[in-house]
Specification:
Strand order of the largest sheet: 1-5-3-4-2
Radius of gyration: 25 Å
Largest sheet: 5 strands, mixed
Number of helices: 15
Helix content: 40-55%
Distance between the termini: 60 Å
Strand content: 5-15%
Number of strands: 7
Order of helices and strands: HHEEHEEHEHHHHHHHHHHEEH
Length: 298
């Protein structure tokens, strides 16, 4: 239950941010920018990657803040276009404080660019691992557009594998209906990635609907899409393909398929140990993506 509107944080800043030998990493310039700010003077971060906030989670955090105060200050910057401040990171804490009825909140004031603000907000959410796949993908794309980064550089900055970032960004090419289902948790990233191989958006929606209603696994989606794209070849393989292929080769194909979000076929000659690995791509853009993931450039 929210407290009275006149309520302020009942703890001094020194208590809110305890300093000991293990957390003396708070820089002096940050401490000099630390202050209590009225929550009414703080505007939301326009680059916040997370669009959905759990009301239940905010309520739980609000109760914790009432009992213990704000343990970690939010980060803001002065609003260059008007009065007050703009939030950089800490939106959950800010919302919880408002719900608890607090008038002020401890904050560190920084001066950052829009691109830095976007990146800081993204990294904060990634550290908590609570972004859905589409929110994360859009945040990556925004940073690429804003900073002019390549996927490899972006992956390094956010501490992610290059293929992970590239495959997430590809989800933005799915129809809006499928993206909405991903956001709602009805279909996972792994289940939706094979749909990108289908050239027809309507077919992508139809197959995604089947995935949901029939509760297919990611592997089942891959097989279904593969059959749609190569019906004759897959019919021939029903009797002579995977059944005759070594289980370790089939397993390796699956790992490569998941890593590169592409159909992969391995042929191996047991007699001489030779063979080949074939990657399939849907279009030129998909080919460029694969080449980059493989460390090659056109």
């Amino acid at each position: 239950m929210a407290l009275g509107k006149g309520k302020v944080l009942g703890r001094g800043l020194s208590n809110l941010i305890p300093v000991n030998e293990k957390n003396e990493e708070i820089a002096k310039d940050e401490l000099s920018g630390l202050r209590e700010i009225k929550v009414s003077e703080i505007q939301p971060n326009p680059h916040q990657p997370r669009k959905h906030f759990s009301g239940e989670a905010i309520q739980e955090l609000s109760i914790t803040i009432q009992q213990h105060g704000v343990i970690q200050p939010i980060v803001v910057q002065k609003n260059s276009a008007g009065p007050g401040f703009i939030l950089i990171s800490g939106e959950r804490r800010l919302r919880a404080c408002k719900l608890a009825g607090f008038m002020k909140i401890p904050a560190i004031v920084k001066e950052v660019s829009d691109a830095d603000m976007m990146e800081l907000a993204l990294i904060e959410n990634l550290q908590r691992e609570d972004l859905n796949a589409l929110e994360e993908a859009q945040a990556y794309q925004n940073l690429i557009d804003k900073r002019g980064l390549k996927i490899t550089d972006l992956a390094t900055r956010v501490g992610k594998n290059r293929s992970t970032v590239a495959n997430l960004i590809r989800l933005l090419g799915l129809p809006k209906q499928v993206q909405d289902w991903i956001k709602e948790g009805k279909i996972s990233e792994g289940q939706s990635r094979p749909l990108l191989s289908l050239p027809d958006p309507k077919k992508q929606v139809d197959v995604a609907n089947k995935v949901i209603t029939e509760n297919w696994t990611a592997r089942e989606v891959e097989n279904y899409v593969s059959n749609l794209l190569n019906p004759d070849k897959n019919n021939r393989n029903d009797s002579t393909g995977d059944k005759n292929k070594d289980a370790s080769i089939v397993k390796l194909e699956g790992k490569l398929r998941n890593k590169y979000s592409s159909k992969v076929e391995i042929t191996h000659n047991e007699a001489n140990g030779k063979g080949k690995i074939v990657f399939s791509y849907a279009n030129l853009s998909d080919m460029e993506r694969l080449l980059e993931l493989l460390g090659l450039k056109l």
